[in-house]
Amino acid sequence: MLSDQRGVFTRYQQSFLASDLAWFAAGASEDKMHHVQPNTFHSLFGVSRENTPTGVPGNKIRAGVRQHLRQLTFDLVHSIIFLSLSSVNVNI
Amino acid sequence: MVIHVEGATIPGAPHLPEFLKADVYLPPHLVDERPECHLPIAAMVQTFIEEIGIPTVNRYIAAGRAFGWTFPQNQGHAMPSSQNLALIPPPAKIGSAHYIFRGRPYGSLSLLASPPQQSNSDQRQPMTASPTLTTATLPSSQPTDRHFPAEPDPIEFAMINAAEKIVDLESRLERAALTEAEYVQEITNLRNELAETYATLRQQEARLAELAENMSCRGSSSHHGSPSSSYRVSPFTTPQPSKGKHRAVPNASQCHTSVAQFPQLAYVSNPSRPEKALNFSASPSNHQSPETPRRTKPKQEVESVVSSGLGPATIKFITTHNLARFGQIISLIVKNNSPTKWSAMLGVLSLSDDVRDNLLNALTADLERGEARNQEITV
Question: What is the mean pLDDT of residues B2-26?
């Protein structure tokens, strides 16, 4: 689709990665699958370990995914704050 | 504001707030424009680590244990110093709104809440720290330092560490007990397997001996060499005293000499086969069918015990103590070991000490009786 615009992927790589994560995360808190039995892991925890290596390399990959997700969350919260900043200022 | 504490911790580190960290998103304007918010923010993050982070870590560990993982604990991690922690740490990256807060020890909240220049921070904390931006759910905006003494108490610290260590040791003890039970089970299985294998080996030997006996009986005198070759099959059996007795037995025919060379059939001095010894010497013609005593016994178990060739006192002991299932093994032990080793070998059966001693007594009684009888006969 973007083959006629070279460098687009490289230039927006971070955004593509974030949108990937957002695609899979969308609706996760409302899909009625987010309840976990006591003292067990969520099924996603198993999924995240299925296709990653064991030991330190796998830990690094999974920590990287978590870091990206956290980054995306913070970015989204940041957007919320700046969209609602005027009202906050009024409150304070 | 977003506060996030991961359930996974540094491997082996104690589950204490000072070993945890929180990833926090702080609105930049709050940090830049309102320095009076720094203290409530630090207090909130610390409260979050203590009240949400620690349970999260504990839950992660419980789930991991249920998953089959083990979590080593307290492996000599040095207590991180939290003396000079800033209220708000520098951002993770320059210009970022992402801050990584390190946890402080239990009881540090009261120190945070009453710094020298701010006396009424307890009152202001719920007010200033509740902008509508808060996305993380906080347990309560009340200062939680009433649970803790005014100063971080080193004794309390040591108590917490000791309690954690006790829990860890208890769980390790539990695991060790389970492993021990497994090993005991394995040892028992191996013992039974060994006994079975031994019994099979003896049966094969006995069959081989019978075959060889038949062959040598049927064959001519030139078959003298065959028994000695089958001797090699049973490396466990060659008690020296019996050999001497064999020579004392008069060689009535070729058939008897070859029988005498078989340990299975010709233990004249061995107490395990007093009947056979009797049969052998008193009525040699009967010896071709060693199963004859079987027909006289009505009970199945007793039959198997008798066919194993044990003496009368031993048989009585075995049947009264309901040990018939061990009869074969006991006879094997008796046949293949010198009397001085019986005690040690009977240890294989995992009997109680007094039962074993009584069994040994019965065996010794049979040994003496058998020898006495043999002497009578040979004389």
Answer: 87
3-state helix, strand, coil in chain B (%, to 5): 65, 5, 35
- Containing structural domain, residue B35: 2-135
* Selection from A26-35, A67-76, B24-33, B253-262 with the highest mean pLDDT: A67-76
User: Which range among A25-29, A52-56, B298-302 shows the weakest confidence by mean pLDDT?
Assistant: B298-302
Give the one of B29, B63, B132 whose C-beta lies nearest to A41's C-beta.
Answer: B63
Sheet hosting strand B21-25, strand order edge to edge? B2-4, B21-25, B98-102
Which element (helix H / strand E) includes B279? helix B274-282
Asked whether the beta carbons of residue A74 and residue B2 sit closer than 8 angstroms, the reply is: yes
Closest CA of chain B from A23, distance in Å:
21
Q: Which residues have CB under 8 Å from B154's CB, separation 6+?
A: none
Residue ending a domain, choose from B100, B135, B170: B135
* ipTM score of complex: 0.81
Same domain, residue pair B188 and B319? yes
Do B291 and B357 lie in one domain? The reply is yes
The reply to whether A86 touches chain B by the CB within 8 Å rule is no
Contact B263, B202 (CB under 8 A): no
Q: How many domains does chain B have?
A: 2
Each residue's pLDDT tens digit, B331-365: 777 777 777 777 777 777 777 778 888 888 888 88
The CA distance from B271 to B364, in Å, is 8
Are B187 and B109 within one domain? Answer: no
Comparing C-alpha atoms, which of B62, B75, B59, B73 is closest to residue B168? Answer: B73
Report yes or no on B237 lying in a domain: yes
The reported pLDDT for the residue numbered B308 is 58
Q: Which phi and psi angles does B91 have, rounded to 5°?
A: -60, 155
Same domain assignment for residues B131 and B199: no
DSSP H/E element including B60: helix B54-67
Q: What is the residue whose two structure tokens read 């060889």?
A: B212
Count Cβ atoms below 10 Å from residue B370 Cβ, excluding itself: 23
Query: Given CB atoms, is A92 within the 8 Å cutoff of chain B?
Result: yes
Do the Cβ atoms of B59 and A39 come closer than 8 Å? yes
Sign of CA dihedral B338, B343, B345, B351: positive
Q: Is residue B113 part of a domain?
A: yes
Closest CA to B87 of B141, B125, B55: B125
Is the CB of residue B47 less than 8 Å from the CB of residue B144? Answer: yes
Specify the pTM: 0.43
Q: Please report whether residue B268 resides in a domain.
A: yes
Q: Which of B101, B135, B169 is the last residue of a domain?
A: B135
